[in-house]
Design a protein that fits this description.
alpha+beta; 1 helix
Amino acid sequence: MTEQVPTTGRIVHLTLNEAQARQINGARTQAGHATKTGNTAREGDIVPLIIVRVWDPVTGNLNGQAILDGNDSYWATSVHRGDNAEPGTWAWPPRV
C-alpha cells in the first residue's frame, strides 16, 4: 500500500503539547469570555488539524488550523509527523 502524502486541505490529528495547550488557554484568557470560549486545552488532547501549507512532504513538516473545542482555532506552525500520539505532532486519523 502506498503511504499517504500530506497535502493542502487534508485533515489530520494534532496531539497538543504543553506549550500549545498553554498558548490556547492563554489566548482565551486574554481575549475574555466575550470573544474566545471553549473547554480547557490539555497536553495530549487530540484535535483535527486542517493542512494549509506543506513545507516538506517527505518529513511531513506543515502548518495548519486546529479546530478546537470552542469558538476559536489554533494556528499550528512547522508541525512534524509523529507516531503514537506524540505531543506536538500530527498523525493520520485511524481508519475505522
